Amino acid sequence: MSHPDAFREIDRTADPAAIVAALETRGRDAAQRRMRMPFLRAVPIRRRDTVLEVGCGTGVILRDLIPLVGRGGRLAGVDVSRTALRAARRYCRGTGISLRHGDGAKLPFTDDGFDVTLAITVMLHVADPAAVVREMARVTRPGGRVAVQDQDFGTVALAHPDGRLTDRILRGVVEHLYEEPCSGRRLPALLREAGLDNIRWRADVYQERALTPYMQAFLGRRAENAVRFGLVDERQAQAWLDGIEAYARAGTFVFTVNYVGAIGIKR
To answer: Which of 61, 255, 257 is nearest to 150 (CA)?
Structure first.
């Protein structure tokens, strides 16, 4: 039986292409990009760096990095989903980005090969985050940077006329989907446990004031999962979505969640 988190085992879901499309929609969302770019610059990603992204999905972030590393840089991505990699190869065609199939807990790269290793919104979805961070450290050169960023679903705020129903859905769904819904705040400790030094962290806020395509899809999946997990019935789920749309029409839609990023240096 597949894991309830569809993003953990994309290729085993009923419609892998739909999950991959959701990744691309999120990656292209303007508010998402405004939130993640300051973290990438803070790592920092420098010109001529060799960078590996673990859990690269459709390659959205790798494409963000092209102007940061410049012509002398080298970008590589690895993902466990073959469906996501097929999409990434299509979107990254002609860029020189190298893409490989592999598990983040057993990376198909030699020791000390990269200046920077990244995992963006990945740790929430993997079975053993500590193992992935250890592997990231292994393939990073001494003095190189290991950087991770993740949502912290303990910090979600959504304006809605029914606050209790909102809490039931948003809190209940993440408790069913993820072993550690508040994974963002755990990231600095993961880097420390992997033996990394000079650990820095920052919180960046994803905030949206309109019901964009990404937000609509995200909240729609939350409603579907709330029904699937028996938290609400279909009538309640639809009433919840109707309340969101009413706020959006009135111009009072508000959604925020913290993304925590941590950066460490390999000894």
So the answer is: 257
Q: Strand 114-120: give its sheet, edge to edge.
A: 98-101, 74-79, 50-54, 114-120, 140-158, 255-265, 197-208
Q: What angle do CA 33, 36, 37 make, to 5 degrees?
A: 80
Give CA separation, 154 vs 5, 6, 133, 217, 231, in Å. Answer: 17, 20, 22, 20, 18
DSSP track, 116-163: EEEEES-GGG-S-HHHHHHHHHHTEEEEEEEEEEEEEEEEEEE--S-H
Q: Rg for the chain (alpha carbons), in Å?
A: 19
Q: Which among 265, 264, 118 is positioned nearest to 201, based on CA atoms?
A: 264
Tokens representing 80 are 């466990």
The Cα–Cα gap between 206 and 32 comes to 6
Average pLDDT, the chain: 96
Domain 10-265: CATH class, spelled out: alpha beta
Tens of pLDDT along 246-257? Answer: 999 999 999 999
The pLDDT of residue 1:
45
For the chain, domain boundaries: 10-265
CB atoms within 10 A of CB 210: 12
CB atoms within 10 A of CB 201: 18
